[in-house]
Design brief:
The longest helix is centred in the N-terminal third of the chain and has 21 residues. Helices cover about 30% and strands about 30% of the residues. It contains 9 helices and 20 strands. Strand 11 and strand 12 form a beta hairpin. The protein has an 8-stranded mixed sheet. Strands 9-2-1-13-20-19 form a 6-stranded mixed sheet. It folds into 2 domains: about 180 residues, FAD/NAD(P)-binding domain; about 160 residues, D-Amino Acid Oxidase, subunit A, domain 2 (D-Amino Acid Oxidase, Chain A, domain 2, 2-Layer Sandwich), CATH 3.30.9.
């Protein structure tokens, strides 16, 4: 069987599924179909605040995010994606944070990101007078970072997949999956049955459900998160970058916010650890809770000057598909080598989707040369190994 004969079905038309389909087509696959339960970006991809940044410390985290930023830079340049390069500022709470941030700058340079800098509190306030950082020791700033609109990207990526010869079937939720004797898969959907030699599970919050249908379970904990708009009484002359008052691995929730317009901020609470109760991926999404508003409002008041007349505008919720170790699960599933995982990006789906798509495509096509270093361990096998060690 040649590459042109392989039939590949990607389940999910969120950012990870569409990035995977695009990579498959770019690497020579000719029969690629995306099965989407609703419409592109209808899940959490379309509800994301769209962070694209490289301000992490661990080299593998920087490696995959630098790849993602170059990816979106290319889509912006070649296809007109709206990529707002408003900058990204991760605040530091301790001298240890600052030491880590200095190391991050070096590692980002190694990954081709040359403009990241560590700023002192005085330098932060000089650039953005509305920020309050008297209780912070500085920050890690990436001037070229920014955000995209997840729904816009999914719409654009769907068009590109079709133009490259792929298919995207909407309103086609997979309800049953069975493997034939010769190894191919029959995927039964609301609009018909699709046969595939390889299936990619890019179901986002529903990836656990999809994994069970395929007999390839994954350790996924969907967790509910939210965001809202802050309506300012007076416009801010100097737009705020994407400010993140959270350090990965801290075990706590942190506040983030950025300028959307001179008179409006987008804000939310963020953590990359599964510290909340899991929810059903089919949970009704809507406005955030009053407790969320109270917590966020208190944290914002500590970080912003001259915003006493600000009010809360609209709000919305989405789902973080979390894994036990806060890393995505990408690659062939141990139960079936023809099932490729492309899931578990937590609250980083937008920025990690390009790397997920590339890695999933390489696994599906059996590519011998990997794009990413061995330090990027997203293999599904890591959980099977952990279970064996416990036994």
């Amino acid at each position: 069987m040649t590459l042109q004969d392989v039939r590949i079905a990607v389940i999910g038309a969120g950012v990870s599924g569409l990035a995977t389909a695009s990579e498959l087509l770019a690497h020579g696959a000719s029969d690629v179909v995306v099965l989407e339960a609703s419409h592109p970006g209808s899940g959490s991809s379309g509800r994301s605040v769209g962070m694209v940044e490289t301000q992490y410390v661990a080299a593998p985290d920087i490696e995959v995010r630098a790849f993602g930023r170059r990816y979106y830079d290319a889509v912006e340049r070649d296809h007109g994606l709206s990529f707002v390069h408003g900058g990204y500022l991760r605040l530091a709470s301790s001298a240890q944070d600052l030491e880590s941030y200095a190391l991050s700058v070096q590692r980002q340079q190694d990954a081709g990101v040359t403009d990241a800098v560590v700023l002192s509190p005085e330098e932060i306030v000089a650039r953005w007078p509305h920020l309050v950082v008297a209780d912070r020791v500085g920050g890690l700033y990436g001037p070229s970072d920014g955000y995209i609109d997840g729904h816009e990207f999914c719409t654009l990526a769907t068009r590109l997949v079709k133009e490259r010869g792929g298919r995207v079937l909407l309103n086609s939720r997979v309800t049953q999956a069975e493997q034939k004797a010769e190894g191919s898969w029959l995927l039964h959907t609301a609009t018909g049955t699709v046969e595939a030699d390889i299936v990619v599970n890019a179901g986002g919050p529903w990836a656990g459900v999809v994994g069970d249908l395929l007999g390839c379970p994954v350790p996924l904990e969907p967790q509910l998160h939210g965001a809202l708009t802050v309506e300012l009484g007076r416009p801010i002359a100097e737009p705020l970058p994407f400010v993140m008052d959270y350090v990965p691995g801290s075990g706590q929730t942190g506040v983030y916010f950025r300028s959307e317009r001179p008179d409006q901020l987008i804000a939310g609470l963020h953590t990359e650890e599964p510290i909340f109760d899991a929810v059903s991926p089919d949970i009704a999404l809507g406005r955030v809770s009053e407790a969320f508003v109270d917590e966020l409002s208190g944290l914002l008041a500590e970080r912003l000057n001259d915003c006493d007349d600000a009010g809360i505008g609209r709000s919305w919720t989405g789902i973080y598909p979390m894994t036990p170790d806060q890393r995505p699960i990408v690659g062939a599933h141990p139960n079936a080598r023809t099932v490729i995982c492309a899931l578990g990006t937590g609250g980083n789906g937008i920025q990690l989707a390009p790397a997920v798509g590339r890695m999933a495509a390489e696994a599906a096509l059996g590519t011998s040369d990997r794009t990413f270093s061995d330090a990027v361990d997203w293999s599904p096998n890591r959980f099977a190994a952990a279970r064996t060690e416990r036994v």
